[in-house]
Every structure is written in structure tokens, then in C-alpha cells.
Inverse folding.
């Protein structure tokens, strides 16, 4: 999903910067607020950020014979809601743009929009929808992780298609071409990310149930009913 | 449905192993099928990002800005490894710390019977015991 340095025309770089900026500012504000209000969640916040940092550094092979990165933005989207990921994703992308020549400073706005904004939001909506339809929690987490990954690459394809419409078939033709490069390759990676997400949340439910309940996540059965009690344990935990 | 809905909270060991196995399985399938799709050529498993950049350049993209710093291939792999190392270091430090706090909270709770946390922990253990033993026991009373 990293659009390489200088590939997008300057005007489009500016547009994507402008589109991403409010989300990033809002995300930074949310992170500061979260740390001030619920310091006991710092460890979870760091875990969410580090997931993106780790997963986006790994190039995995895909069935199409090419390789690609997962994004890992679904974890933070579920735990702290998508705005937080806008800022965290930006940090990861700056690191990669400056040190690894992966992505770029000119395309940072576009890459932030696809990986740190569109991906987490789409994943989170699917998570909410699954919960609303009374789907199992594990399925909701799987879909959020997988689709935040897949959606990121679909948005990148659309960004490239808008920038470079096909001479004969226009934007749609170009979108199909770029989706052909990205989307199919990404499916196995998205599935892997989904399973990893369930694994991680299984562990979190075991060791951080009070914090999860404090964040308003009803992942533990009876979590709603046990709310006052778990709040008490959360407070105890913050003193420890 | 009930079976899947407890996937998240069931502490049965095999569930975690099955999930890990699923990840490895998808990885291996990708590796084998991908290798065949690429025809075993040296270009196998090229990055999709590079492929997209090439496609964009064919469609008329002209890079107008060069990366400020471009590491050589060997150094690049090391920098990627550092990124992964930092990420996993933070993740497992945090998970380990949360796990330790959880264990400590439970231990404290069982030592000091007066706090609210203790009552919660007691209820948890009582619940677990009730699940473990099919027959009710009077020995605790």
C-alpha cells in the first residue's frame, strides 16, 4: 500500500495531505486524552501501536507469487476506536518513508489516508456490524483485522487509479488494473492477520479483562453485568 | 454458533494452537502456490508496492521527488528487521507486564480477603471450581 516517493502528482499529494490532516490531529488529541484519563490503558495503547509497527514491517509471500505487507491496524481500531490509529499509522509511515525509502514524504498523506484512516474505519464498521448482527466476537475481530488490511490496499488502488486513469477505460479500468496488483495478493495476508488478531485478543481477554471492560468492549461474557466490579479491579490495577 | 462465540474466551489450549496452525498453514499455502505461480523464477515474490509503482509509471507517472535517503539492499533488510524487533519488543513487554499484573492482582486478592478485588477473584475461583467439579462440595464451608 506504500505509494512510492514522488509517484503521485503534486496536486494530489496536497489533496491527500489535506484529507488526512484532520484525522491525524484528532487522533493525536484522542491519544493524549486517553493517556490522561485512563493511564492504566497505556500498555494496551502501546500494544496497539506496536502491532502496526511490527506487522507492517513484514513482507509476506502470497499465492499470486508476489509479496506484500499486512497492516495490523485492526487491533487499535477495536481497542481504542479508529481515530487513534490515524496518528499511530502516521508514525509508522514516517519511519518507513525516512529510513527505509518505503512510501515517501510526498505520498505520506495518501498512504496515511489508506492505511491509517480508511483501513481502520472500514474494519471497525464491519466489527460493529458483526456485533450488531449478534455474530460471535471472534468473527467480529477476524473480519475487522482482515478487512482493515484488505480495505487499505483497495483504497491505495483507487488512489492510484484516480491519479493515473487508463487511456481507454478511464478510472474504472485503472482501478481494476491496480486492484489486480494489490487485492488478490492481499487476501491470504488478510486471513493470516485475522487469525493473529483472534490469538492476540484471546490473550488480552485473559490478562486484561478489566481494562477491556473499561474501554466499553463487551468481549467477555457477562462483562456488562460485572461492570462495577471490573471497574473496581481496574482502579486497583492502576494503583499497583 | 455457541461453539464459535466462545472461541475468544475459551481457555482450552488447542484453540490457540489451532489458530497458530491456521496462520502457518495459510503462510505455507501462499509460499508453495505463490512459488508455482511465479514459475520459480528469480523474480518470485516481488513486492506489490514495486509492481504498482511500475504499473503507475507505465500509465504515465513521472516521479518528481526522490527519497531523501535510500538504504542499500542489505542495509534495508536490517532496518526492516529493526522495525520488526522494536515492534515485537514493545508488544511482548506490554503483554508480559499485563500478564504479570493480572497474576499479581489475583495473588494479592487471595492473600488479603477484605478488598473488592478479592471478592471478585474469589467469585472467579469459586466459579471455576464449580465448573471443575461436577458434584457440589461442602468441604469449603
Amino acid at each position: 500500500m506504500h505509494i512510492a516517493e514522488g509517484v503521485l502528482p503534486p496536486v494530489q499529494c496536497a489533496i491527500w495531505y489535506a484529507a488526512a490532516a484532520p484525522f491525524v490531529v484528532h487522533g493525536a488529541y484522542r491519544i493524549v486524552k486517553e493517556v490522561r484519563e485512563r493511564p492504566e490503558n497505556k500498555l494496551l495503547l502501546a500494544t496497539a501501536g506496536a502491532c502496526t509497527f511490527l506487522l507492517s514491517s513484514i513482507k509476506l509471500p502470497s499465492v499470486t507469487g508476489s509479496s506484500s505487507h499486512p497492516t495490523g491496524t485492526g487491533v487499535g481500531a477495536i481497542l481504542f476506536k479508529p481515530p487513534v490509529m490515524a496518528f499511530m499509522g502516521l508514525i509508522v509511515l514516517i519511519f518507513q518513508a525516512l529510513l527505509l525509502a518505503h512510501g515517501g514524504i510526498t505520498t505520506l498523506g495518501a498512504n496515511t489516508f489508506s492505511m491509517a484512516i480508511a483501513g481502520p474505519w472500514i474494519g471497525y464498521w464491519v466489527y460493529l456490524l458483526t456485533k450488531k448482527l449478534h455474530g460471535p466476537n471472534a468473527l467480529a475481530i477476524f473480519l475487522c483485522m482482515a478487512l482493515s488490511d484488505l480495505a487499505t490496499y483497495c483504497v491505495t488502488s483507487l488512489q492510484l487509479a484516480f491519479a493515473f486513469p487508463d487511456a481507454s477505460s478511464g478510472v474504472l479500468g485503472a482501478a481494476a488494473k491496480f486492484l489486480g496488483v494489490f487485492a488478490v495478493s492481499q487476501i491470504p495476508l488478510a486471513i493470516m492477520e485475522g487469525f493473529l488478531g483472534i490469538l492476540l485478543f484471546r490473550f488480552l481477554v485473559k490478562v486484561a479483562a478489566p481494562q477491556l471492560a473499561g474501554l466499553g468492549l463487551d468481549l467477555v461474557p457477562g462483562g456488562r453485568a460485572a461492570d462495577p466490579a471490573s471497574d473496581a479491579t481496574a482502579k486497583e490495577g492502576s494503583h499497583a | 454458533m455457541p461453539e464459535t462465540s466462545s472461541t475468544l474466551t475459551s481457555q482450552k489450549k488447542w484453540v490457540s494452537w489451532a489458530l497458530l496452525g491456521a496462520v502457518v498453514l495459510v503462510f505455507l499455502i501462499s509460499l508453495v502456490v505463490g512459488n508455482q505461480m511465479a514459475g520459480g523464477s528469480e523474480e518470485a515474490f516481488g513486492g506489490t508496492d514495486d509492481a504498482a509503482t511500475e504499473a503507475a509509471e507505465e500509465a504515465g507517472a513521472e516521479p518528481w521527488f526522490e527519497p531523501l535517503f535510500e538504504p542499500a539492499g542489505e542495509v534495508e533488510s536490517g532496518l526492516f528487521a529493526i522495525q520488526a524487533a522494536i515492534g515485537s519488543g514493545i508488544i511482548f513487554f506490554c503483554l508480559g507486564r499485563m500478564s504479570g499484573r493480572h497474576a499479581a492482582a489475583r495473588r494479592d486478592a487471595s492473600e488479603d480477603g477484605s478488598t473488592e478485588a478479592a471478592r471478585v477473584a474469589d467469585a472467579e475461583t469459586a466459579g471455576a471450581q464449580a465448573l471443575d467439579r461436577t458434584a457440589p462440595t461442602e468441604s469449603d464451608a
About this structure: Chain B touches chain A through 78 residues (CB under 8 Å). Chain B has a mean pLDDT of 79.
